[in-house]
Amino acid sequence: MLLSNYKTRGKKPMKYIESKKNDEIKQIAKLSSTKYIKKTGTYLIEGFHLVREADANDQKILKILVTENHEDDRLVKKYYDNAIGISDDVAQSLSETKTPQGIFAVIEVQKKEELTDLSGQWVMLSDVQDPGNVGTIIRTADAAGYDGVITSLDSADFYQPKVQRSMQGSQFHLPIYRMDLHKAIDLAKESGLIVYGSEVNDQAESYTELEKTSDFAVIMGNEAHGLTEDVLEKTDKNIYIPILGKAESLNVAVAAGILLYGLKI
């Protein structure tokens, strides 16, 4: 539906921004920066699925931006007072993809209570740099029914647009914390969780040989270097995935998928 065709029912016409040089658009574009996200307490999501998931999971949507060719009239009508029409040129400037879907939302960062206790099953990420890997692991943790994810301070920020897109709405389904990894490991141990490190070394066991437990945390390491020695010193057990073919290793997100399901089933 064309933006100009909306029935405003006495409301003023929807604001329309045509130029990517518009000051408001420039500010929104900065929401790809971790520094600016922290400064404003807001972040940007893109695409029909993510915006619908944010709405369905009671996220505070501050603005919705749509092009003429968007396909979700219900959301635009619901957030009409905070909706902005944008040109395709503006959409392309905000998008992380070659073919934008024509809908974006500015979301308020939800304040979380400080973690003081852990229970159940958790995933921890240590220096995982690639946004796609971080997002995919979080999505897998959601699918596998984990209780939460903790990312180290040197992992890709989960509010970055590429991570948001890779999570595909899982960010709204389970708690995700960004904190010092050593403190997270200490907290897990104090809470009675067994801490597994995903690493191949002389002390490591195949994940297939482990006795299953209901309360644990599993740490996935950096794409190139794995887990550091200081992290490995804190783990209770180190586990690995047997390589049956000739490949040297697995992508960290693929390895996480195998372990997250393997440790539960």
From TrEMBL:
<protein>
    <submittedName>
        <fullName>RNA methyltransferase, TrmH family</fullName>
    </submittedName>
</protein>
<dbReference type="InterPro" id="IPR053888">
    <property type="entry name" value="MRM3-like_sub_bind"/>
</dbReference>
<dbReference type="InterPro" id="IPR013123">
    <property type="entry name" value="SpoU_subst-bd"/>
</dbReference>
<comment type="similarity">
    <text>Belongs to the class IV-like SAM-binding methyltransferase superfamily. RNA methyltransferase TrmH family.</text>
</comment>
<dbReference type="InterPro" id="IPR029028">
    <property type="entry name" value="Alpha/beta_knot_MTases"/>
</dbReference>
<dbReference type="Pfam" id="PF00588">
    <property type="entry name" value="SpoU_methylase"/>
</dbReference>
<dbReference type="GO" id="GO:0006396">
    <property type="term" value="P:RNA processing"/>
</dbReference>
<dbReference type="InterPro" id="IPR029064">
    <property type="entry name" value="Ribosomal_eL30-like_sf"/>
</dbReference>
<dbReference type="Pfam" id="PF22435">
    <property type="entry name" value="MRM3-like_sub_bind"/>
</dbReference>
<dbReference type="InterPro" id="IPR051259">
    <property type="entry name" value="rRNA_Methyltransferase"/>
</dbReference>
<dbReference type="GO" id="GO:0032259">
    <property type="term" value="P:methylation"/>
</dbReference>
<keyword id="KW-0808">Transferase</keyword>
<dbReference type="GO" id="GO:0005737">
    <property type="term" value="C:cytoplasm"/>
</dbReference>
<dbReference type="InterPro" id="IPR001537">
    <property type="entry name" value="SpoU_MeTrfase"/>
</dbReference>
<dbReference type="GO" id="GO:0008173">
    <property type="term" value="F:RNA methyltransferase activity"/>
</dbReference>
<dbReference type="InterPro" id="IPR029026">
    <property type="entry name" value="tRNA_m1G_MTases_N"/>
</dbReference>
<feature type="domain" description="RNA 2-O ribose methyltransferase substrate binding">
    <location>
        <begin position="44"/>
        <end position="113"/>
    </location>
</feature>
<keyword id="KW-0489">Methyltransferase</keyword>
<dbReference type="GO" id="GO:0003723">
    <property type="term" value="F:RNA binding"/>
</dbReference>
